[in-house]
Structure formats: structure tokens, C-alpha cells
Prior knowledge:
Layout: H1 5-14, E1 24-27, E2 39-41, E3 47-50, E4 56-57, H2 61-69, E5 74-76, E6 85-88, H3 114-122, H4 124-134, H5 151-156, H6 160-165, E7 169-172, H7 177-188, E8 194-197, E9 200-206, E10 214-223, E11 226-234, E12 237-239, H8 243-246, H9 253-260, E13 263-273, H10 276-283, E14 289-292, E15 299-302, E16 311-317, H11 318-329, H12 333-344, H13 351-359, E17 364-375, H14 383-392, E18 402-404, H15 416-431, H16 443-449, E19 455-457, E20 465-467, E21 470-472, H17 486-489, H18 497-502, H19 510-515, E22 517-521
Parallel strand pairs: 1-8, 6-14, 12-18, 19-22
Antiparallel strand pairs: 2-3, 4-7, 5-7, 9-10, 10-11, 13-16, 13-17, 14-15, 15-16, 20-21, 21-22
Helix pairs in contact: 1-7, 1-15, 3-4, 10-13, 12-13, 14-15
Amino acid sequence: MGGGLTGLWIAWKLTSGPGPVRRVTLLEASSRFSGRIKTKYDSSGEPLYEEGAWRLPTNHERMLQLCKDLGLPLMEVRSEGRQSMQAWAGADGPWVTAQTPQVPMLCSSRTLSTWDRLASERGVEFADDSAARTGYAGIDIMAAGSDAYGVEAMATQQPREEAEVNRSYVVPKRGLSAICEELVTRLKARPDRVRLLLNARVQDVRLQEPGARTQVEATLRADHNAFRTQTFDGDAVVLAAPPECVASFPSSFQLLRPILESLEGVPLFKAYAPVGREFAALTCLGPAFHLKSDTLLQQIISGTYADANMVQLAYCAGRRAEALERLRLCRNAEHTICEEILRLLSPRCDKGAVRQLLASTGMDFFFWKNAVHIWRPTFELDVSKKSREACVLPCGPAYPHVFLCGEAYSTVQGWGEGALQTAEWVLSALQAMGSDVGARTPVPSMISLRGLQLQLVNTVPPGMLAAGSRIIDASRWKKVHPGGERAITNHEGEDIELLFAAMQHPAYAYGFLFALQIGWLTPGVRPK
């Protein structure tokens, strides 16, 4: 399920050469493949700009290798190179570093978000400033250990302008969509092993009794406003879809809920205008620039593709992205963006000419409600460990042939690199099944083969809890539990799944079950 980068890559790898997989069916809910990767092209097929993902860091080896394998030549992203104008536009001048004394941390950093840690060590102003300077203010609420957007780097590397300029980025010359287009082309060349279905929205994933094939129910669009339901079954089901999609499956939601509630989507907003060269000349920024500011716009970036004459007038995350989207709905986004830009410009610039330029052209807006995802800060959440568990054994040993993957579940959230990281884990688990994908590997061996450090028990160990088939170690959590320690100790050794729901815990509390999970009950065993 899912025809974005992750699903296409797994389907391609599973059907490349001899292997245990006999046939792959790929279901994509929308009318196109590639997910949140979407290049806008002109009438001659040349790339104009990227509506979603827009660059590849040169240290993301999986993505660079994929481009090489697909024969896609790369080019440097001009706005991020050493010759570009990169600066912080603010009242305190460019790249001013706050001199705040560091306070030693007294508690586990795994429980904190990046912002929590910086605020407690260096102060709230420093934490806010560090987040804003990444260009993605608000994304710093992610759990420690998953800082894919460089908030920590902006806070610790000196001087800050060097930390930013030393990063380099590339993009396929044909646009990022070319990656997915090439994968689709190669899959279509294998009709005997691959079936690709667009407009096929998965409605439910039914986890059958252990040993039975998993059923997937999907609604397929048959005509303009006509739909039909079809059930697919398979020896393995790969859910290459974000948490908000997987959460809509009634039959599997409760089992997956501890994972899904550990994650949160973050919105992004972009605004483009076809006046790149004129804007650069009037603002004296030069042909390549990347400005960041503590404004609604957050980022102003020169066009990625030199011949396209585009400029990205706004690129922001979180509440700022949602605010600009609501302004767009009120037909006031253009005016707001123009006024914000004028406030940031140097007094030497002809602001009247800039205002006239922006008023004379149309803007293209793109809002992604769940553009990227973050791990919610949760009590002692070990992201490096839990991300793999979420992907290769999300439903436990009773249902070992169901998998999750995508950037949301990775340690490199928000990037294609994270998507491929999880895809590699799932691919390895599928290949470890042996010559018969439908075979049932003994559970202890299966857990070991998937690189997991999870216990498999026949009874709930002393001092621990069960939540369904998950074994929960609440020994440290009970000491800080809001309801007191007895609320935990009174139920040690029991299955608290129904009690947990009856207590009407907020949705995010289910993420604690995943963070504190240390094992699974043996399939078929039921605690008291």
C-alpha cells in the first residue's frame, strides 16, 4: 500500500532478479505515483520548481545511490552552495549568537524534545532562536534523537553561518519526480511480477488468525463518480503510508495505535512566483540566495532550476504554515507575503519597485497538512531502537507479515533518506523469510533475524504489565505517573488494555505504551 518513494522502491527491489517474492500488487490511493515528491514542469517538460520535497543532502547516501542506480544525473542546488547569499534577516543583524551560559542537564534527554533541552540548558530565547534559524520553526518539538532539520547543529556549531554554508545539496537535473518516474517505468516493464493500481484507496487491513493470509480491502475508482470494492490477500502486507492513513483502518488500528500515537504530522507551506531574476536584481541578493527570518515567511529562496526564473517567496512549517494557508483561503496571502518581504529588505532597495513587481505577478501556493512527521517526545523514548521495531514488527509475532515503512517511522524524518532507511529494514525482513514468503518462521528466530532486542515471554514478568500482547516495563514510569505509583502497582502482572481505554487517557498517552514496551507475549498466550 502506497505508491510514493518507499512503496515504489520496495516493489522494485522485491521484483529485481530471482527471489522469494512471486508477485507484488501496489495500491496507490491517488491518481499518480510519487507521493509528496512532485516536480512542476513547463510546457516543454523542463522543471520549474518542487511542490514538495526539494533537495537531497550530499550525506544522504541511500538517496544518492538510488539516483546513481537509476541513471539520473545530479546538479547542485544553487541556493545552498558556497557562492550563494545565505543570511539571517532580523533586527539583530546576521547570525548573532546569544551568549547564554549552559546549564548541566539533570535528567534523561530521551524524554525531552530538542526545544525542551535547549530551553532548559540555554534559555527559552536561545531555543526559539535556534529553531527559527533552521527555517522550520516549530519542528523542534520532535523527540531528541530525531533532529533531522538541524536545530541542534544551529545551536552548537560556531559560527552559525559556516554551519549552514558547509551543507551542500543536490537534485536530479530532471527534477525529483524523475526518481519515482524511473521506478514506475522499471516496474511496468515487469507485468508478470508487478501489478500497479492507481485510484485504489485502502479501506481496511484485516489481520487474520496466525497462519492465514492478510486481507486488504480497497475502494477502486471505476469511473467519474463510480467506485467498486475489491479485496486483496497476500502472504505479506507492506503499509508504505503515513500514520494518518494507517490510522483509518478499523481492523488493525487498535493493535497499531501505540505506534501511530507516537508520531505527529507537521505542515509545510510554499509560495512561488515566476520573477526570480527580477526579484534578485531589485533586492541586490544575486542569482543564488537563501534567507531565513523569524517571520511568517521563514525562508526566501532562489529558484532551484536556473532556467526557470522562479523564486520561493515563502517556505515555512508548523503554525506559520497553517496561518499562511488560512490567509490564502481569505485571498490575503499575496498581500501578507509582499509586506513581510518589504519589512526584511535593506533600506537601499527600491521597495516601491519590489512591491510593484510582486503585485504584477501571480503566486503558486502549496500547503501540505502532514508534509513531514516527528516522533512525539515521550517518556524515555529511544528513537533509534523504536523506529526499527515500528517497521519490522508493528503488530507483534502473531502477525509477523505486516510491515510499516516511510519517513514518518524513521530516524531521518522528513527526508527521502528516512523513507529508504525504513524500506531497507522491511526489505531485509521480507528476504529473511526464505524461499517461501508464506512460511512461518519460529518466533524467536524471526525476532532475532529482524535485528530486534525484544523479549518473548509466556507470562507477564513480575513488576510488569501487559497491554494486549505488548509487555510494558513501567518500573521507572510509575515513579512519575500523574495518578501515583499505586495506579501502576495495583495492576502489575495484568493485561491493562481495556482498563487503559476505560480511563479515557488522551490519544498521545498510547505512545507511552510503545516507548515502554520491552517485549511481546507468545502468540496464543492471554494474561489475566
